[in-house]
Amino acid sequence: MSELLGVRVVETTGLDDRVLTLTQAASAPSLGRLVDRQFGGLVLTGQGIAASARGFRQTGVSFPVLTEPGRVREEVATESDPFGCSTADSLFPRTLDNFLEGQRSIGATLVLTPTGQVGSQDSATLKAVIREANRIADDDVVTMVPVRPSWLSSSHLKHFKAVLATSQHPVALCLVESNGNPLVARKDTVAGYSSLFAEVPNVIAYRSDLSGLGAIASGGSAAVIGLLPSHRRAAIAGKKGYSSNPTDRSPHVLVPELMRFVRTSRMQREWFASTQPLTCGLPCCSGQAIDRFQNPNEALVHNHVALTSMAQDLLTLPNDQRWAWWIGRLRAAELAHLELGQRIKQDIALPDDITAWLKLAG
Fold first, then answer.
1. Where are the alpha helices (DSSP H) in 200-241?
2. How many structural domains is the chain composed of?
3. Alpha-carbon Rg for the chain in angstroms
4. How far, in whole angstroms, is CA 228 from its chain's centroid?
């Protein structure tokens, strides 16, 4: 058991020191064979969750498989109904226990509360989420907390930490934003994000980008990282997510040395139109060009393998060495941006979230 502010918090079960991949259920079988049994896992989302989860259960996989409730993406929580029980079919009323049992019945290793999105500074609803989840005594429950980045601002962070610390289950923190990366929505978001994971036990970075590794390095118990842009945050309920170019369907590719995802089309047209592209030395690529991907499924496999490699590097380190590893990777990425810019004779801006993390490190 861990303690914060005198509140006892249940330890995580089966998720500590793991980086799970959030993936469409249809893509899960192709990634399942690549999951690191010690440090990885899958969270299934989208259509076909039940069939995919049952398939993993039948094959007897030895890594966690979770199923994402749609409410994190689609609905808003209220104080009186944080989990959508009152909006279920009135002929067959459902309880939170029913929702969770439904996940268990299809083979979920752990179960996620079907929490709707909590509005900015809606303290009453946030407390209701934690309070009602705490009524469930089962030890396989993870309390989902989807919130706007403003909860991590300096003016609200202390209260936010105090409420989360009362959870008797691990908390999956999901940031909600429709206008790009939620970690750069405010100047103080990254600082608040890191501070929360450092001070509140058993918090999981959920629907994160590579900053999920930073969350673990700060003290977080685990991370769930998306390989697609729409899986690296939750859009505000009722609004479409941000896209820099909705007509461009080329894959987003994780470039490990740059610590960022980049569209294939951008690399081909802007970076490597007249020079040799970077290559990838991962086993799935064997030294081939990093900008070669046209097939989304092939890019997804590359992204998963690249993320797994980073997770292994981080999670094999003792806790007190992880922050230095994270900041070291970001500083190396900063240098790699400069070197690539010199090579292709362009200025390549460092992503805002990397800049924010480096500023935090000093």
1. 211-218
2. 2
3. 20
4. 11
Domain range for 215 is 2-231
Mark whether 162 and 58 lie in a shared domain. Answer: yes
Residue-wise pLDDT for 30-54, tens only, equals 999 999 999 999 999 999 999 999 9
**Other Cβ atoms closer than 10 A to 130:** 21
Domain contains 263 = yes
Residue partners of 101: CB distance under 8 A and separation at least 6: none
- Evaluate whether residue 238 is within a structural domain: no
Query: Per residue in 313-338, pLDDT tens?
Result: 999 999 999 999 999 999 999 999 99
Report the distance separating Cα 62 and Cα 59, nearest Å.
9
Q: Please check whether residues 258 and 227 belong to one and the same domain.
A: no
CA 197 to chain centre: 14
Contact 58, 35 (CB under 8 A): no
> Structure pTM?
0.93
C-alpha 157/C-alpha 62 separation (Å) is 37
* Terminal Cα-to-Cα distance of the chain (whole angstroms): 33
For 103, residues 6+ apart whose C-beta sits below 8 A from its C-beta are 66, 67, 69, 111, 112
Residue 243 lies in a domain: no
Candidates 241, 244, 240; CA nearest to 232 is 241
d(CA 196, CA 165): 10
Euclidean distance between CA atoms 298 and 60, whole angstroms: 25
CB atoms within 10 A of CB 149: 22
- Report the helix count and the strand count for the chain, using DSSP H and E: 12, 14
CB of 144 within 8 A of CB of 69?
Answer: yes
Q: Retrieve residue 261's tokens.
A: 């995802």
Note whether residue 49 is domain-resident. Answer: yes
